[in-house]
Automatic annotation (TrEMBL):
Pfam families tied to this protein: TetR_C_13_2, TetR_N
Keyword Protein biosynthesis included in the entry's annotation: no
InterPro entries named in the record: DNA-bd_HTH_TetR-type_CS, Homeodomain-like_sf, HTH_TetR, Tet_transcr_reg_TetR-rel_C_sf, YxaF_TetR_C
Any one GO molecular function term: DNA binding
Protein name as annotated: TetR/AcrR family transcriptional regulator
Keyword annotations: DNA-binding, Transcription, Transcription regulation
């Protein structure tokens, strides 16, 4: 996922800097624990500038989810998992790519919209819906590869849309386990199991395990 980048007070428009700050601070602290002051401090802008761009913290939350959807869409569109000719191999390449991102601080690879959706789904329908649009929108980008892989491998009775959503269920759940145990290895483990599952339904050989 897009990593936090260094910035100076002169870099970028204030609104963009506020969105970047929200992305970073909320992934680090959670939405409810994050204050407007926290975001302004991270973005190096005044509170007056914040309220010039956003009516409230909730309005920023919605905008941050939309910003996340836009920037991660660009990130995944440029990712190398689109390269294989075989659609089943593209699915496995996607899983491997997601696994490769699980490194560094937990807030650097976990999902902003997943974090916010878990916290505010009942208290802020607007943020919840923006987070849902991001999560389900990304899942939808995988459906064509799933559909082609299922058709090519003789498993067309399964639902491509459902399998695409299942990948997000595993990934978001993996992030929750990682946070609960403070252990990124649990997220990598979950992606390994997801790969094994897809190899089974696509009737592909299992990858040889590297001795530990």
């Amino acid at each position: 996922m897009p990593r936090k980048t260094l910035r100076s007070p002169e870099r970028g428009a204030a609104r963009t800097r506020l969105l970047e700050a929200a992305r970073d601070v909320i992934r680090r602290k959670g939405y409810c624990a994050t204050t407007v002051d926290d975001i302004c401090r991270e973005a190096e802008v005044t509170k007056g500038s914040f309220f010039h761009h956003f009516d409230s913290k909730e309005a920023l939350g919605v905008a941050a989810a939309d910003f996340w959807a836009e920037t991660t869409s660009q990130f995944f569109e440029a990712a190398p998992y689109h390269t294989p000719d075989d659609p089943a191999e593209r699915v496995l390449a996607y899983v491997a790519f997601r696994r490769s991102l699980i490194e560094g601080p937990i807030e650097g690879f976990t999902c902003l919209v997943g974090t916010m959706a878990q916290e505010v789904h009942a208290m802020s329908p607007d943020i919840r819906d923006a987070c849902g649009a991001s999560i389900f929108g990304h899942a939808a980008t995988l459906e064509a590869d799933f559909g082609a892989a299922l058709a090519a491998r003789g498993a067309g009775d399964l639902s491509a849309a459902s399998l695409a959503r299942h990948t997000q269920c595993v990934i978001q759940g993996a992030f929750v386990l990682t946070k609960a145990a403070n252990d990124p290895a649990l997220a990598r483990e979950s992606l390994d199991h997801l790969e094994r599952y897809f190899r089974l339904i696509f009737d592909m050989p299992q990858r040889e395990e590297t001795p530990r």
